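My main concern about presentation is that the manuscript never shows what a single data entry looks like. For the editor and my fellow referees, an illustration may be useful. For illustration, here is how one protein appears when written out as sequence plus structure tokens:

***
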Amino acid sequence: MQFHRGRLIDHVHLRAKDVQASKRFYRAVFDSLGLRGIVQEGEGWFQADELYVDKADGAVSRVDLAVQAADRDVVHAFHKAALGAGGRDNGGPGERAYHPGYYGAFAFDPDGNNIEAVCHGPAQRSAASVVVTPKG
């Protein structure tokens, strides 16, 4: 069985009620995943990799966003960081029946989006990341 990731999603745009609360939450979550320093910010917005968050001018987003974790220990660190940064528990670390080896944890961010860290078990990747270099 193979899983192909990183080919479908270009970006995720969340609309937050409180951008600062969301930034604290996501910074803690990303730090727990070993992704320190990826948050860039401006007036009323921040982004990290393909995630962009800004102030909602009406309804906030309601999405399910899953991030990749290197192993089960990172899934546990994610869950602890998410709850410590104002998130609400939506399912502690553990195996799920989605497919063999699926190990995840879930938390709601400050606006109620379901955020998940998942490890698919031991695997060999063809590359650590996709490198995109714009032309022109």
Observations:
- The helical segments are 19-32, 72-84.
- The mean pLDDT is 89.
